[in-house]
Amino acid sequence: MESRVNRYYKRKLERKNRKIKISLLFLVFLILFGGLNIVNDCYNFLTGVENKKIFTYNYSNEFHNIELVGKEYNISQTKINKQINGVITKIKGKVTYIIDDINVLLNN
Q1: 3-class SS of residue 57
Q2: What pTM did the predictor assign?
Q3: Quick one: average pLDDT of 89-99?
């Protein structure tokens, strides 16, 4: 059996590792978009084209406009909200299922 102190340090280490993973993921995305911008600038310089962009993002009139390597994607905010709400309801359902199972185990 673990002592309370060991469990405390174990949870503290897990939280620290989670923060490190999230910050590394953020850093990877930051490097990815920085690299895309550098490649875009070099491509425009070498070809002599001024307005061509590899990656752009605009938000207007409830639409997210993303242009990636010449293809344009228009995503409405309502679709994003529906996806987020769907994920939240699935998570809430699983959490209530787990809580119900724990209550059944504790009552027996």
Answers
A1: strand
A2: 0.48
A3: 90
